[in-house]
Amino acid sequence: MTCQPNRRRPGLRALLLLAAAWSALADARPPAAPVRDVVDTYHGVAVHDPYRDLEDLKNPATQAWMAAQGAWASQTLAAIDGRDALAARIAELTQSGGDAIGEMVRVRGGRVFYLKRPEGSSQFKLMVRDGLGGAERVLVDPEAIARRHGGVPHAINYMMPSWDGQRVAYGLSAAGSEDAWLHVIETATARERIRPVPRVQEALVHWTPDSRALTYNQLRRLPPSADPTEFYLDSMVYLQRLGQARPQPIFGRLLRHDLGIDRLDVAGVQFQAGSRFMVARTTDTTVPEGRIFVAPLSDLGRPRARWRALVTAADQVTDLALDGDQLYLRSRQGAPNGRWLVLDLARGDTLAEARTAVAEPAQGVLQRLLPRPDGLVVTVSQGFTQQLMRVGPDGRVGAPLTPGLSGYHEAVADLGRAPDIWLRTSEWTAPPRILRTQADGPPLDTGLQPVRLPKGAPALVAREVLVPSHDGVPVPLAIVHRAGLAMDGQRPTLLEGYASYGSSIEAHYSRRALAWLEKGGVLAFVNARGSGAFGDAWHRAGFKTTKANTWKDGIAAAKYLIAQGITRPAKLAVNGGSAGGIFVGRASTEAPELFAAAVYEVGSLDTVRAEFTANGITNISEFGTVKDPAEFKALLEMSTYHQIRDGVAYPAVLLIHGMNDPRVEVWNSSKTAARLQAANPNGKPVLLRLDAQAGHGIGSTANQFDQQVADMFSFLWWQMGEVTGPTLR
Questions:
Q1: For the residues 724-728, what does the mean pLDDT come to?
Q2: pTM for the whole thing?
Q3: EC number(s) for this protein (predicted)?
Q4: CA–CA separation, 727 and 729 (whole Å)
């Protein structure tokens, strides 16, 4: 899902003051939201929206209501037995498992840049070291920045070093907003090289091969009165040469009307060391298909660069890799699980003249391609796993680079194309590692992220199964629990799903989740249709008008967990976040009898109104538009808010949202909370947990996540009867 900049939330101080006042009213339920039903008619269907007023976050009445709801949720969660002890245990698990390593990029000469949250720290820092034996240095410390700004959390959204490693560009945002400012610093001194640039939201930052300039995509500056849907439109790519005060616009619709660029196209202009060409790629930031243009590198900065159109969205090209004069393109046209094509740019090849470089694999989904000095390497995914594979001289996927290793493996970005490949491992039952390949023999551990179990962590087991869905289609489900745990039908079980954009849940080890597992809980993950577990066809089977398969697959997984004697409805909960709000919201409203509780995290819950928001307009390509009769019908069906019915015994619901969320407007949660509370006022609790210093989760500190997970697990155990909680009037 795309990054949308933060729009300042007026009245936030008033909201916090009201929350403080409300917290004094112990055990009092918050007031019901006032109803002013707005009726929209689409294709002859009247759609009721009784809480439309909650979309107006400037309205004092809305602020007061949200303050009361947030305060009531906070005091209720705090009163659950053992909640504080659980929070302390989660913090211990988070901090005692060693350092956490995030994004990593290698450059020529062995220098490596990475994001690292040292043990005991709360936020990722930008680090650099010269080779594995070199001492690491902190370049940017967001915690120190936060202290200089009144404690407001800051986070690094992205980073990209220059080819020679002498400089690094990064994006910095505050309070979970993802409203990133672009910075460029010298590696040796951390000295700023350019004036920070606002509104650089996407990680579309690319250095020229000589490391003396970079390109970036910047959103327009809009007046406060602008329609929200204008936010992403007509962005521009700029070239910033070091030593020059002003950047130069080089690519965008407002600059080149002759190229047929759409208003929603968000572009990046990228380069490759040793290539005589530059490539511009545009997408709507949601689907990978878009336009691709190529021009001679010598045209960079010229008023009329000779851009040649190579690809449109109809060509179904989803990725690219530039290698000298060769341009590799991943296409799903005629190959649902992907194939890689190659064009000779010096010869002026068109897409029609492309030859197949890597054929569609017999099994799995072909993903990223890495041109190497000794040949091509690709990643192939299936279900919850991904492997790095060599490509044979015949263009077919060959042997894995890491034979005998299971789980999800991802290559570390390498701008210098060193002779060895670094890869990150991710498994259900073991902490991640960073390995490096060697010419002969098994991969070696780099030591950058040594295996270290958190204090008291239990041994885990995992199994992956295929579960028949409502229409008989087998759906992948992973089940993780403590070793030796008896499956007696009484296990507190949490089922999680996402299933949008073709993105899949991969095998992973979560330190915080150990707090659930060590108490005898079970975690289950489903890659429902809408994910990319089995390629593009799997994605399209949970997409727009077929989206219902997403939550029906989740319901099938829940029934399987019950039928297998793992749990029962009184001990089963369901969870989903962001676009996974559709999964959790509709599973828990269509089959409420299966669940004791549900957690909606920053969920997309009102899909009918989504396209009238800044980020929602970019998601039309994934979920549909109300302007199309068939897609409107599907949007109404997938909208949790509109599917809530009066008098239904829904499970207990915890809605979690950050007030600065730039991707899913916070009113998705507030409107849904109001509707659930009104539908069954004497039913199970519906809590709206709000964080004024958070957004969509990206940029939140370790402590914010620790507290959120403690609230979530406490809430679920309370509703499953594992612990006692407050008596609500």
A1: 93
A2: 0.95
A3: 3.4.21.26
A4: 7
